[in-house]
Design brief:
The protein is mostly beta strands and 527 residues long. The chain is built from no helices and 44 strands.
């Protein structure tokens, strides 16, 4: 076996029953203590023995010899790359093994792996891959999981995962998608329960998954935002016969029964001009032409890539806000649902800005969720777009007030994902936005954005705390990983793009640890 001699106690101690094939010393977790990395024979793989007590498997394949490389005071096994895939499409921080700390789930881009990866946290922010933790996803290596969300699907108290996986093949790129459900076992592994979702195949793609109890029955539901053609919508004008329109874009709400089963719910939305019924799709065609009451304009083909959810009138029910392309009034869907019956009353806000993405957060500290948004620029490279703040009147109507952005309105190239957290624990909501830049070759990347609430009703640009590197950050996730209570940030930075083009984004650090004072430092673990 493997034994060690302690020069202080002058005693021998057996560390492992297997003999080593190769070993090396170094500080692999950056805490100043020497750790041991051992390669065992007989296919047992490479393991680390950290802090004199904890064994962790680093790799399933054994090595003949090992060497350690020091970088920034932290050691790594020579020749190894990042633990997570170099190209990540989605990530999620949540406690998968119920040990009290946030673990990491990541999804690779197409062509890399047929399943996502679970990395277990030891409580200090050091992560180790857990083999065979997630079931294979839709289409294997040709599939791309573009979104994860935490959900308690079967009401057993064990965290579950809802995911959207799209077709990433060149033959049908983003032409189909599947909504997948993974039920947690409580030990970090998950079992596939996707068959418990009715109508979980999508002809096109679903951009986001939003979890909430929409009908107030006490069970979690989820919503998909669908930026594609899903058939016809039956639109009933008041005092007029129903009219059927094709090309509906919007979202579906899947109602949960608390036992892990989900099915699209029938939705009724009503405003002063229309009554839309008999469909599981929210057909967001509303266009008031910046004047008068809302009306329906089917030709508008509004694609709400990121419907926002939250209780915007503080009545205890989950409402929705839909940023719209073009200078149309923004619809707020005020929830009037009862258990098993989905209904929303639609009101409008004349924000005067063209938006496609954003977030609901309380900017001015009055207890009501405000709207913060921007227009995500896709592949055109036509120039950046600015951040906007719209203040809620308490009833779900928003009025633009960009004086609440300091020192000036920041710009985006492609605001990919918006995350709200209280980064400095001052009981005020702060904002991180992942911006991956122009989504076309050479993929030059862009800086991300960090806006901190100053407690006086304004968001202050603190992006300098994360640096201004042009990274390709395809989303992010937020959560405390090292147990200090402050939310940290994991960025889905692409580490491979820059290898093929000098004009591409830089391979930025992925995990940023929050010091609670407005500063962030990159983790020394190579994730």
């Amino acid at each position: 076996g493997l034994i060690a001699y302690n020069s202080v106690t002058k005693a021998w101690k057996q560390l492992h029953g297997l003999s080593s094939r190769g070993l090396a010393f170094g500080d692999v977790d950056g805490n100043g203590m020497a750790d041991l990395v051992v390669s065992f024979g007989s296919g047992a793989g490479v393991w680390s023995y950290r802090n004199g007590s904890v064994w962790k498997q680093l790799h399933a394949t054994s090595a003949i010899s090992l060497a350690m490389v020091n970088h920034g005071g932290m050691s790594s096994v020579a020749g190894t790359g990042p633990i997570a895939p170099e190209k990540i499409a989605a990530s999620l921080l949540m406690d998968v093994d119920m040990d009290g700390d946030n673990d990491l789930i990541v999804a690779p881009m197409q062509g890399i792996a047929s399943t996502g990866m679970v990395l277990l946290n030891d409580g200090s922010g050091y992560f180790t891959p857990l083999a065979n933790a997630l079931p294979p996803h839709y289409l294997g290596k040709n599939g791309v999981t573009v979104n994860f969300a935490k959900i308690n699907a079967n009401n057993d108290g064990i965290p579950d995962i809802i995911a959207t996986t799209v077709d990433g093949s060149s033959q049908n790129f983003y032409g189909a998608a599947k909504i997948e459900l993974y039920l947690g076992n409580g030990d970090g592994t998950f079992r596939d329960a996707s068959s418990q979702i009715a109508s979980n195949m999508i002809s096109g793609w679903s951009e986001w998954l939003l979890v909430a109890d929409f009908d107030g029955d006490g069970f979690q539901d989820f919503m998909t935002t669908e930026a594609v053609n899903f058939g016809t919508c039956n639109i009933n004008m008041f005092n007029s016969p129903p009219v059927s329109y094709s090309g509906c874009h919007g979202g579906r709400i899947y109602l949960g029964d608390g036992a892990g089963n989900f099915a699209p719910g029938r939705i009724t939305t009503t405003d002063v001009a229309t009554n839309i019924q008999d469909t599981a799709i929210i057909p967001l065609f509303y266009d008031s032409n910046l004047g008068g009451a809302g009306s329906v304009n089917p030709a508008a083909k509004i694609w709400p890539w990121n419907i926002l959810v939250g209780d915007i009138n503080n009545d205890g029910k989950i409402d929705m806000v839909a940023p719209t392309f073009g200078t149309r009034q923004v619809p707020s869907f005020i929830n009037t649902s009862t258990p098993g019956n989905l209904s929303f009353s639609v009101i409008y806000s004349n924000t005067g800005s063209s938006t496609s993405a954003g977030v609901l957060m309380d900017v001015d500290g009055d207890g009501f969720l405000d709207l913060v948004d921007a227009l995500a620029i896709n592949n055109s490279g036509s120039g950046p777009t600015t951040l906007n703040v719209h203040i809620n009147n308490g009833k779900g109507v928003f009025t633009t007030d960009n004086t609440r952005i300091l020192p000036a309105q920041p710009s985006f190239q492609h605001a990919r994902q918006w995350l709200v957290a209280d980064f400095n624990l001052d009981n005020r909501s702060d904002l991180f936005v992942a911006d991956h830049g122009i989504d076309a070759p050479p993929f030059p990347g862009a800086p991300n954005l960090l806006m901190m609430n100053n407690g006086k009703g304004a968001l202050v640009n603190q992006t300098a705390a994360l640096g201004f590197d042009n990274t390709y950050t395809h989303g992010a996730s937020v959560g405390d990983v090292n147990g200090d209570g402050f939310p940290d940030i994991f960025m889905n930075n692409d580490l491979q793009i820059g290898k093929f083009n000098t004009q591409a984004a830089v391979p930025g650090k992925r995990l940023w640890l929050n010091d609670g004072k407005g500063g962030f430092q990159p983790s020394r673990q190579n994730l």
